[in-house]
Amino acid sequence: MSRLLVTGGAGFIGSNFVHHVMEHSDDEVVVLDKMTYAGNAASLEGLPESRFTFVRGDICDRELVDRLVSGVDAVVHFAAESHNDNSLANPEPFITTNLYGTFALLEAVRKHDVRYHHISTDEVYGDLELDDPEKFHETTPYKPSSPYSASKAGSDLLVRAWARSFGVRATLSNCSNNYGPRQHVEKFIPRQITNVIDGIRPKLYGQGLNVRDWIHVDDHNAAVLLILERGEIGQTYLIGANGEQDNKTVIEKILTLMGQPADAYDHVNDRPGHDMRYAIDASRLREELGWEPTYKDFDAGLAATVEWYRANEGWWRPQKAAVEAKYAAQGQ
Ligand code: NAD
Ligand code: TDX
After folding, report:
1. In the chain, N or C terminus with fewer CB closer than 10 Å?
2. How far apart are CA 232 and CA 167, in angstroms?
3. Is residue 262 in a domain?
């Protein structure tokens, strides 16, 4: 049994990770979360008190981080500013949380010699052409496009430097686009599902030819737990489930699943600098650690996600109006 510090555990992937750990291990979890607009206390309801502690605080608070890290066996670092569109409107919190916050954690795990796993994104590699036969792999050069992806790329490089220079026992994972329960309604899939529930037409940026490599959040988290337990120290693992879909197709699938005409959506302003395509080669994870995704059928995973948002309106309703007002102000 281990004691884990999970940063960002009230967010989308972090909260699903905490539930996954409770079900698939006997580890104890301490969540450290600032509860920004993206943190949702309801995502952590019902966890066993004997194995779960919640601390509200900032990963940039070095004293707090030092104290919490000193009491655990491992840190799993999910906390971040995570939305590309927000990073275009106001990059500053991305620099503070994603870079300085990661620095604060690295200094603490270095001091207390604590195992560290760093959660990152495929966006650090920039984008691919639609017809490129290559996918991203562990040695693809970094070429981030947005303030968000640049801040994540910088945080990855800090981890690698702390591992090499100070011997921090770190692993890294770069995952593709996640979908599933408890994702904030600012993100593409939940935004469109909740729009349809509310009778608002879904909003497609530009022509919607951009491709994302979708993976169910539970498959991402199963890989993270496996890397934490059995990954090679110093190694980077790419996580992806061969889930490439263009945005237009995803919107059409959501509309069809929800009983609407497939063309009942609007084209809105494109995202500046919009990455065209992401695609992951997860061979190392599959071959070295034996990981396999459970959700191999995107349509079935999407249908289950639609059902979750239908059944959990109380979870997302408080955020919905403000998110749509913000998008409307930027023509999206
Ligand atoms: P999210 O925005 O849903 O959650 C982020 C959480 O971090 C929130 O609970 C928020 O309150 C917390 N947080 C933000 N700043 C903080 C700070 N300074 N101190 C403490 N807590 C803070 O994000 P997500 O989609 O769950 O992403 C989690 C991680 O996974 C991020 O590192 C992101 O880069 C990475 N990632 C996300 C995806 C994806 O598709 N969503 C894909 C690959 C990697
Ligand atoms: O309303 C929309 N319409 C639309 O067409 C929104 C919100 C998005 N889009 C497009 C933009 C992207 O091509 O859909 C695609 C997915 O958009 P997001 O959900 O904003 O995700 P993305 O920018 O691809 O980044 C996500 O995956 C990688 C996460 O937000 C990141 O945290 C993660 O690193």
Report:
1. N
2. 13
3. no
